[in-house]
């Protein structure tokens, strides 16, 4: 039995605190990861000080090269490869090729839910193997919601499969997800073996995708709930009938002659002005500077109690009309009403509509907010926003186009875009193909080919230089940089060896393939609660130690951990793509367990058997 040392106890304490922070997210996961890195860096000098005053026998050494190892996550090949892959994905996205492909396929589905589901899974799966699967879902989400709308299908029936299928597809190649790249790097660093090749586990990934697809088209289709009824009118979908109305300014109203900003916006009333109708003209934001005139008709969002108070105090009369989506989009005959999803890494996460000055910053008005299955239509201004929150937004067509290009949001409906670089489609696709080919042929390492491809995206004007930094999901980069030192500390302290020894005890009464299954399911459960990248860093050192003790191939055990870490189906927080669809699909937390639980079990068995078949355990 491995002796427990102070270094192990310290590392386990850091891990437990980190797990609690990853699971509850009092701060973003990337901030937690940086906190872990800084904590590990402080342990060594603090312990030396304690030794000097006689409070500790020997210093706690977690890093052989200090502080180089602790900071190595920033210069790690996995971190740089993931950074480059974000840039490559952005270059492809800017051409509009995926939107064009999705539109062509969706035209063939009609009103058949099964065809729509097949098209959704069939498009996102293969694409996710070659561009980041998170980016693939963000790009395809508007196409899928429009597909549901045109086919009179509940978007809830398609969006969860969209997320799940992107995870299947991400396991087709090394570059499908950041988790694969990180797992390859950790495996190579610990074992001294070559990193994974581009298509080394594609056969297993294809098996998982086929089985997962069959599940989604059969059992999963029946289990996936239709939380949102198929409706063409967004005001119906968000049940806005009791919250939207029109009021007219009377001759004797004290508001006449005042600016809208002071008279109606900067008040204590829970009311939003959506549009001003003056004669034959209809005005949207910005309404603040306009001077109120007799006979002005305002479309407002408020509740009945506030409306009664507003009518009494401000000299307004109720027009009494039922406001529909068509009436809200009459201002410039364009698309003025859309669903907007708060994206991961958005600067609005943790902010409220008031503190973010949403109306002023984006010239847009939020009518309602959907968080999973919960609809919020009053007193939204001070509610802290979360990733996956879906906002029903009214704005001018120009403002909506700006929201669509903003990295903080995903507009959940297809809008007509004029800035796609369609002439660059062959170039961008060719660059990605070249990156894949160079890495697959082992001509140069994947990190070099990916960085070369990123430069080529700029050199060929698929991307502008100023777009490079916006293309990168910096929260993922800092997460990787922060958790990589934790894996190093686990190895150097002996914590990984101790955990492996505990797992190996099960090998005394379980066959080797069952121990492999234990690693899969432990990792899967962990990943559904914390970050998938953190799960890989924690579990791969343990898996390698356990395999070595059991006389098994470490590669096979690492594959089981990697596949489990990239397929978190049972919670909305287990994977970023699950959060993407949480609001637009109107899902409840339990829906993920209902649909994803059986899928996790099926794929756990399939992956374990598949690893043992394609990659012998001994």
TrEMBL record:
Mode of membrane association: Multi-pass membrane protein
Positions of transmembrane segments: 6-24, 31-58, 70-88, 158-176, 196-217, 427-452, 472-490, 502-523, 529-548, 555-575, 595-615
UniProt cross-references to Pfam families, sorted A to Z: CitMHS (PF03600), TrkA_C (PF02080)
Subcellular localization(s) per the UniProt record: Membrane
InterPro entries associated with the record: Cit_transptr-like_dom, DASS-Related_Transporters, RCK_C, RCK_C_sf
UniProt KW Isomerase keyword: no
Gene3D superfamilies linked to this entry: Regulator of K+ conductance, C-terminal domain
GO-annotated biological processes: potassium ion transport
SUPFAM superfamilies, per the entry: TrkA C-terminal domain-like
Domain RCK C-terminal: 232-316, 325-409
Any Gene Ontology CC annotation: plasma membrane
GO MF assignments: monoatomic cation transmembrane transporter activity
Keyword Repeat included in the entry's annotation: yes
Keywords: Membrane, Repeat, Transmembrane, Transmembrane helix, Transport
The protein's name: Potassium transporter TrkA
């Amino acid at each position: 039995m491995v002796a427990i040392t102070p270094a192990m106890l310290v590392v386990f304490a850091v891990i437990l605190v980190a797990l609690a922070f990853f699971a509850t997210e009092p701060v973003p996961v990337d901030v937690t990861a940086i906190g872990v890195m800084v904590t590990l860096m402080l342990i060594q000098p603090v312990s030396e000080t304690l030794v000097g005053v006689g409070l500790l026998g020997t210093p706690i050494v977690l890093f052989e090269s200090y502080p180089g190892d602790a900071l190595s996550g920033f210069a790690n090949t996995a971190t740089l490869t993931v950074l480059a892959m974000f840039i490559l994905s952005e270059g492809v996205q800017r051409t509009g090729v995926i939107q064009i492909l999705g539109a062509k396929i969706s035209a063939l589905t009609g009103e058949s839910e099964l065809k729509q589901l097949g098209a959704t899974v069939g498009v996102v799966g293969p694409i996710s193997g070659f561009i980041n699967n998170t980016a693939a879902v963000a790009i395809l989400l508007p196409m899928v919601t429009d597909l549901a709308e045109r086919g009179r299908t509940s978007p809830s029936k398609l969006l969860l499969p969209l997320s799940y299928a992107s995870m299947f597809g991400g396991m087709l190649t090394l570059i499908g997800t950041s988790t694969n790249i990180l797992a390859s790097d950790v495996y190579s660093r610990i074992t001294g073996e070559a990193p994974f090749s581009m298509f080394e586990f594609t056969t297993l990934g294809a098996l998982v995708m086929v089985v997962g697809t069959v599940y989604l088209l059969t059992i999963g289709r029946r289990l996936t709930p239709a939380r949102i009824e198929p409706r063409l009118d967004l005001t119906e979908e968000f049940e806005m009938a009791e919250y939207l109305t029109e009021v007219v300014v009377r001759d004797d109203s004290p508001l006449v002659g005042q600016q809208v900003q002071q008279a109606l916006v900067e008040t204590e009333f829970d009311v939003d002005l959506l549009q001003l109708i003056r004669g034959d003209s209809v005005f949207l934001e910005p309404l603040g500077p306009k001077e109120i005139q007799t006979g002005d008709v305002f479309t407002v969002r408020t509740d009945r109690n506030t409306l009664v108070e507003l009518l009494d105090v401000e000299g307004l009369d109720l027009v009494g009309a039922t406001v529909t989506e068509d009436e809200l989009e009459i201002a410039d005959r364009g698309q003025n009403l859309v669903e907007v999803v708060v994206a991961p890494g958005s600067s609005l996460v943790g902010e409220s509509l008031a503190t973010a000055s949403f109306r002023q910053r984006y010239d847009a008005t939020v009518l309602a907010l959907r968080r999973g299955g919960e609809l919020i239509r009053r007193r939204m201004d001070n509610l802290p926003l979360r990733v996956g929150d879906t906002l029903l937004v009214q704005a001018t067509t120009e403002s909506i186009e700006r929201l669509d290009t903003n990295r903080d949001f995903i507009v959940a409906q297809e809008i007509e875009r004029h800035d796609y670089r369609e002439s660059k489609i062959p170039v961008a696709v060719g660059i990605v193909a070249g990156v894949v080919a160079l890495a697959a042929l082992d001509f140069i390492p994947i990190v070099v080919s990916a960085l070369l491809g990123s430069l080529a995206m700029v050199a060929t004007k698929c991307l502008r230089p100023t777009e490079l930094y916006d293309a990168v999901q910096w929260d993922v980069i800092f997460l990787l940089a922060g958790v990589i030192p934790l894996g190093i500390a686990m190895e150097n302290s002996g914590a990984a060896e101790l955990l492996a020894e505990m797992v190996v005890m099960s090998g005394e009464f379980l066959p080797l393939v069952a121990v492999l299954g234990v690693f899969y399911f432990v990792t899967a459960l962990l990943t559904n609660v914390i970050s998938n990248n953190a799960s890989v860093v924690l579990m791969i050192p343990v898996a390698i130690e356990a395999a070595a003790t059991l006389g098994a191939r470490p590669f096979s055990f690492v594959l089981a951990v990697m596949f489990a870490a990239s397929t978190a189906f049972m919670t909305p927080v287990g994977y970023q793509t699950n959060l993407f669809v949480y609001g637009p699909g109107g899902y409840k937390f339990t829906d993920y367990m209902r649909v994803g639980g059986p899928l996790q079990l099926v794929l756990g068995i399939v992956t374990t058997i598949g690893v043992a078949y394609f990659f012998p355990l001994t």
